[in-house]
């Protein structure tokens, strides 16, 4: 019985480490884009908005400067500090 509990704990810890390292690897990969990667990443990033044209314009502008686009269609900006910290004159987020 103790062996099963030990195995379960080991499996749970292994899965936790796997998820943690995959997030680190994803964040590292996001911050090393080349300028040619910006359009496809921004196309996906802007796919869920009804304002595609301005979203694509600003996403590509931010990507060209930061060489990073956060994963997903919304949020996750903490993955790209440059992308996350670029603000408008009014103090709002510049990058979608």
Can you tell me about this structure?
- This protein is mainly α and 96 residues long.
- It contains 4 helices and no strands.
- Helix 2 (38-45) crosses helix 3.
- The termini are far apart.
- Mean pLDDT is 82; it is low at 24-30.
Furnish the topology, listing elements before pairings:
Blueprint: H1 2-30, H2 38-45, H3 52-66, H4 81-85
Helix pairs in contact: 2-3
Low-confidence region ranges: 24-30
Order of helices and strands: HHHH
Round the Cα radius of gyration to an integer and report it: 18 Å
The best one-word shape is elongated
Distance between the termini: 52 Å
Oligomer: single chain
Q: Provide a count of the helices.
A: 4
The largest β sheet comes out as: none
Strand content: under 5%
Helix content: 55-70%
- Can you give the mean pLDDT? 82
Instruction: Report the structural category.
Output: mainly alpha
Number of strands: 0
Keywords:
96 residues, mainly alpha, 59% helix, elongated
Question: Quick summary of this structure?
Answer:
With 96 residues, this protein is mostly helical. The protein has helices spanning 2-30, 38-45, 52-66, 81-85.
């Amino acid at each position: 019985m103790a062996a099963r509990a030990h195995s379960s704990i080991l499996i749970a810890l292994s899965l936790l480490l796997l998820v943690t390292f995959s997030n680190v690897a994803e964040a590292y990969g996001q911050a090393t884009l080349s300028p040619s990667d910006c359009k496809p990443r921004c196309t996906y990033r802007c796919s869920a908005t009804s304002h595609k044209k301005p979203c694509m314009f600003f996403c590509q502008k931010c990507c060209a400067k930061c060489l990073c686009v956060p994963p997903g269609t919304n949020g996750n900006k903490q993955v790209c500090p440059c992308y996350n910290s670029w603000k408008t004159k009014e103090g709002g987020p510049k990058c979608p």
